[in-house]
Structure formats: structure tokens, C-alpha cells
Amino acid sequence: MTKVSINTAVKTILELQKENKGATLLGIGPMSQNLLQASFELARDEDFPLMFIASRNQVDMDELGGGYVNGWNQFSFVEAIRNMAAETSFKGLYYVCRDHGGPWQRDKERNDHLQEKEAMDIGKKSYLADIESGFDLLMIDPTKDPFEVGKVIPLGTVISRTVELIEYCERERKIRDLPEIGYEVGTEETNGGLTSTETYETFINRLKEELDSRNLPMPTFIVGQTGTLVRTTEQAGKFNFENACELAEMANKYGVGLKEHNGDYLDDVTLLEHIPSNIVATNVAPQYGTEETRAYLKLEEVEQRLVKYGIVDKPSKLRETLLIHSIKSERWRKWMVGEQRNLTVEEIVKDNEIAIQILDIAGHYTFNDKEVKEEIEKLYQNLSKVNVDGQRFVVNHIKRPIRDYVECYNLKGVTSRIIEKLQSSEAIEIG
Fold first, then answer.
1. Start-to-end C-alpha separation, the chain
2. Among 92, 111, 104, residue whose Cα is nearest residue 45
3. DSSP state, 386?
């Protein structure tokens, strides 16, 4: 299939919305190789575009610490995606996207309280690897300022940093004579200051003025707060349909798409509201990682029954290993509520209920740990003795929640609708 840039794809969806043929694209957090496989198989069968959204903690340069997902840097990440597309005979559209790129976006950078210039330089270095490796979309997010914790960062500061980063990326892209890339701006975080519709439009207006004055492109997406919020393994927010409609209308006036973050664990009714609200894309990440953890635990339960039946005599220790590594990762703190964020490892180990909750939240952060991988392989081998394909079960288990979004977001057949629209329009060309 001819490559369609993400900018063209989004503009086409905005046109399709006017014909009541729109859809909400799904940005998928790439938590594992299994998730890539599940995504490609489902997109191949249901004919919709894929967007893989990788944060800097998940995928980054080796010299900046790499990523917790498979140890991928930008180049190995793009290669893994390309290889999985080939393995699954996927012929459709897919986009490699940077989620929350920029300064202070790695936990260590915030914890070290890097000064602005150093943090911006590191953010630029990471973006350059994104560009050179072939990313299609870069999210420009300079709002994780460790010196402004809990405060609303001034809009002027957010805009000036955003423009500086886009200008840098465009200059480096053009020097290398690489194809156009899309940009995503704004943030779902409350300290980004973009929580009201009035501030949202002010941000777009001022950003457009600054970009136009430098002959820089408008972004493909602008993130807006629709009320969604993920805590533990639940949707803790409340989707605001009216607010979403207003934000989408504002973004549409400037030819850009409204992007929603924290779209995990939404119920079917809320998912179905996304089409009439004209949200162009939603990001979902931790939910799919949690579903993979749950799949492993179900398989481990089967393994334990096989031990009871006398079929398996050397079971894996996957549950125990996942639990220990999840607790020690401490990445669960981001998702906990209240004082639970400050629990010590010793306190968690003594509280079985909280320990199990943390396993559910943070299991996916440990999939690349050597001991965890060894226990997963041992589990698969034990199950294979009774003709149970554990890896296939995991992939299919991950597909279940993705399929819910595909159905409710009207994604089935979207790739064909985009191509047909482009072929019938002289105003937009495939490129």
C-alpha cells in the first residue's frame, strides 16, 4: 500500500467526519512484542491504521538509558515494528509515534532536577534519534518541569519551549532530506495549564502565530483534557462529552485533530460517545500491559492445576517472580492514589491485598527482566506438554480490549475509507 503520511491521514479523517464516516484512531502503548503482534493481527483483519506511541521511559537512546520495553532504542523499536508487520502479513498503514517527548520526560531527568538548558538539549538529542530512525509523529511536551511541580506552567513558557523544539526538529529533518513528520502538542497533565476550553483556544492561537512567524508547520494533533484519568487499573475520571465536542471543534477550525490521553479502561457507553464528539485519536497504554499480565497469571493458574493433576512436576515461579520485580520496579507509584504512593517495599510485602494490586498495575514494566523472561519460557514449555499454546493465548487475550475500542471507535474499514477518500479528492494527495 502507498504510504500515507500521518498528517494526510488525520486531515482525511477530519473530512470524513463531515460525511458522518469518521472514526477515532487508537494510539497503542507498545508494552511488549506480544502487543505488537496482537495489534498488527487485529488491524490486518479489521482494516484500520495503527499508531504505536512510545514514551521516552519505554523507548529511548542507549546512551540516555534505553527503554524498559524490550530494551528498545529508537532504531531497534522501528525495526521490531517493521519485522512484525512483515511476519503478520500486514499491508495497511502504521505510524511510529513519540509520546511525551522533550525535556525532563525520563524519570531520572526529573529526579536529578536538570537545569532547563541541559534538559532541553537531552530532549533534542532524543528527538534527533526519533527523526533519524523514521518516527512519523513527535509529541512535543515540555511541561514536566521539576521546578514547577504542582504549579500551572505559564502558557508563554510552554509555547516558547514547544516552538523551539519544533523548530529544531524541522531543521534537522530538512538537513537530512527526510519526509515530513507530524507533531503533537499540549498535554493531559493539569500542570500543563490546558484544562479549560478557553485556555485551549488561546494556546492554539498563540502557538499558530509563533509557528507562522517562523514558517513552521501546525501540529497534527493538539491534546485536550476530556475528563479521562487513569489511576491503579481503573478509569478514575469522568468523560465530559460537551467539553470534548468544544475542544474538537476548536482544533478542527485550525485543521488539526483533538487527541485524548488516558483513554484506558473506558466503558462501552463512553467509547461510543467518542464518534459524535469528533475526537480524532485516543491514547491507551497501561491497560494493554495489565491485560498481558493477567493473561500470564491465568496461564500460571492452569499450570498449578496441572501440578495438582500430576502432569507437571517442575512448575514455573512466574507469579512470585513477577510480583517481586513489580514491587521493586517502583513504577506503580505513578498510578497509586494518596498515601499509597509512599508505601515502602517492606510494607507492601506484608500486605497481600496491596501486593496483588501492584502486580496488576506494574507487571508489564518487568517483562524484559531476565528472571521474568525465564519464568515465562518455563511456563510456556510446561503448558506445551498438554497442547496449550501459551504465547498464542497471551496474544489473543491482549486483542480482547483492543477489539472493544476498534468496534466502538468505528475503526473497522478506516484504512480503506481513507484511501478511497484520497483517491476521489484532488485536494489531498497520497504522499
1. 11
2. 92
3. T
Q: Where are the beta strands (DSSP E) in 66-174?
A: 94-101, 137-140
Q: At 415, which amino acid appears?
A: T
Whether the model pTM is above 0.90? yes
The residue ranges of every structural domain in the chain are: 6-285+401-424, 289-397
Give the model confidence (pLDDT) of 351-391 as tens digits.
999 999 999 999 999 999 999 999 999 999 999 999 999 99
Sequence-separated (6 or more) residues with CB below 8 Å from residue 16? 22, 23, 417, 418, 421
How many whole angstroms separate alpha carbon 218 and alpha carbon 232?
35
Amino acid of residue 187: T
d(CA 265, CA 213): 41
Is 188 within 8 Å of 223 (Cβ atoms)? yes
Please state the length of the chain. Answer: 431
Query: Which CATH fold topology does 6-285+401-424 show?
Result: TIM Barrel (3.20.20)
Instruction: For 153-291, list the strands marked E by DSSP.
Output: 182-185, 221-223, 230-231, 234-235, 257-260, 281-284
The Cα 219–Cα 205 span in angstroms is 12
8 Å CB contact between 109 and 66: no
Tell me how far apart the alpha carbons of residues 256 and 222 are, in angstroms, rounded to a whole number: 7
Residue 50's H or E segment, with its range, is strand 50-54
- 252, 200 Cβ separation under 8 angstroms: no
Q: Do 34 and 292 contact (CB within 8 A), yes or no? A: yes
